[in-house]
Amino acid sequence: MSMSESLPPKKKRLVAVSGKGGTGKTAFTAMMTRALLDSSMAGRLLLIDADPALGLPSAIGVQVKRTMGQVREEIIRTARSGSQEEKAQLGEMLDYMVLEALIETDSFALLAMGRTETQGCFCPVNDLLRGAIEMLSRSFDTIIIDGEAGVEQINRQVVRHLDTLIVVSDATARGLQTASLIRRMISDDRVIRCDKLGLVFNRVQGNEELLRRSAGEIGIEVLGFVPHDEAIGQFDLIGRPITELPAGSPGLVAVRAIVEGHVIGQ
What we know:
Blueprint: E1 13-19, H1 25-39, E2 45-49, H2 56-60, H3 68-81, H4 84-101, E3 102-104, E4 109-112, H5 123-137, E5 142-146, H6 152-158, E6 161-169, H7 173-187, E7 193-204, H8 208-217, E8 221-227, H9 230-238, H10 250-262
Parallel strand pairs: 1-5, 1-6, 2-4, 2-5, 6-7, 7-8
Antiparallel strand pairs: 3-4
Helix pairs in contact: 1-10, 3-4, 4-5
């Protein structure tokens, strides 16, 4: 089903996925993408890969030719050494440059943040890019952000406010420590505005009640458990998109329940 044929959602949704490295955030985001598209309730869907590792494109079966990091580098180079005419045209060209980095398919669009090579603080450039992305985001009904560990880069590069932040953790103390840190950043430090914060345990092989109690001790609601799924590892190994998992795949079934209960079910 194409984006234009999807049923419009009840409201605009902005959801980010974060957590400790290695917990399967990108695979979870890919399965969430599949579940949203299957539901026909995503409307116009935008995926933002905010992780410099750029794992999401392969997980959803697309190739990235240009990233926002490259756009940022081009702006900085022009500002430093470009002609006066080129510098004057930067503001007018920014929207076009952002659109050039946008990948559109029949089902969704993808914007990859990528890496930035130039060191130092370039706050005006970062603000320009964030403003351009926020403007672009208004054209979409559902926006999913696949972030790296923590939420600082989301606040710095992508958006200022989230409807839902999903923290993905494995069944380890370090995963829960990262989840606790993120909760404090949201609740106490107010790093970013977030209406709802929830925890998803990934690659679970039993002990759900113990995990639920552990989440309660750090004050985070558990949105669901995603079981260990051999098919996900096999797809990763051969480079097949996670979005092509069989409909009955245990991991996808669990993620679909989370999406229906806590994303489109809000």
